[in-house]
């Protein structure tokens, strides 16, 4: 008798139903829920049980056969096959928020890992309890654990780790751990890491833009100190250090307020997208010219900023994702600082 196959179908997802079937069966085989050589439902049986069209299930089974995940035996039905899937790399990938640039890291990681990897994405929204529960629930179920450690305390301040988070991470075998985006030397053992140095990165990036910055009277960092997904305070430390060392007048704001008191020859460095949008809206409403009356630099590159001609200071998210995958594929346990760039456009 065919084993009951629990197909996980998300009706609200834009992922095609046939692909959800493929991913669900591969996931069950990879985790041992479906054993090699075990019979699975026929196309008609699964179609009826999951309320899916026969064509949808047939397309999924065709893909699974091509990948040698299942085989069909004439007159008997479908069975899971003894394939390379058993040695498939299973990765638990944790990000702190679903921002566009975090997803760039994730997508390039997945693409570089290729078809021989199954990557499970988990988002914990900078919440200690969500992170700990996810790790404890999945400990031992994956070959690798990739984590982006960014948390918030009770005052919504950014912290890289908490004592409870560190205790949980110590339970992960270090040869299975890869820390991405943020680093913490307190983690013991030999593990891989590719990270940003938030203080040094902004400091060095602003030095690269020194020739343009010299024409401005004041540098203003818009740092959202009470964001739901807080940013490292090291960004502020690096900005302040740069301004003090090179004798720039500076100010640090929590946000771009409505009806800002603009002064000519100010340059704004924004971190959150909504602050950038609000700033540009007010600049245009007052007929100010970017790069002449007001300067704008944004933290973290996106395709839209490139299209709008906004100067950015940003880590290379594509490189971070690809390097993380390379470290797993080549079994590297190095500590690598990711590339950080000053990309000059017309806004300064």
Give a nutshell description of this structure.
The chain is of the alpha/beta class and 348 residues long.
What is the topology?
Layout: H1 17-30, E1 39-40, H2 43-49, H3 54-66, E2 70-73, E3 77-80, E4 89-95, H4 100-113, E5 117-123, H5 128-138, E6 144-147, E7 151-152, E8 158-159, H6 163-169, E9 177-181, E10 192-195, H7 198-208, H8 210-213, E11 218-222, H9 234-245, E12 249-253, E13 266-270, H10 273-285, E14 294-299, H11 303-308, E15 311-315, H12 317-329, E16 335-337, E17 340-343
Parallel strand pairs: 4-5, 4-6, 6-9, 9-10, 10-16, 11-12, 11-13, 13-14, 14-15
Antiparallel strand pairs: 1-3, 2-3, 7-8, 15-17
Helix pairs in contact: 1-3, 2-3, 4-12, 5-6, 7-9
Q: Describe it for me?
A:
- By secondary structure, this protein is of the alpha/beta class.
- The protein has three domains: 17-85, Orthogonal Bundle (Arc Repressor Mutant, subunit A), CATH 1.10.10; 87-194 and 317-338, Response regulator (Rossmann fold), CATH 3.40.50; 199-315, Response regulator (Rossmann fold).
- Helices cover 36% and strands 21% of the residues.
- The chain contains twelve helices and 17 strands.
- It has helices spanning 17-30, 43-49, 54-66, 100-113, 128-138, 163-169, 198-208, 210-213, 234-245, 273-285, 303-308, 317-329; strands at residues 39-40, 70-73, 77-80, 89-95, 117-123, 144-147, 151-152, 158-159, 177-181, 192-195, 218-222, 249-253, 266-270, 294-299, 311-315, 335-337, 340-343.
- A six-stranded parallel β-sheet has the order 5-4-6-9-10-16, sandwiched between helices. A six-stranded mixed β-sheet has the order 12-11-13-14-15-17, with helices on both faces.
- β7 (151-152) and β8 form a beta hairpin.
- α4 (100-113) runs parallel beside α12.
- The longest helix has 14 residues, at 17-30.
- The model has no long low-confidence stretch (mean pLDDT 91).
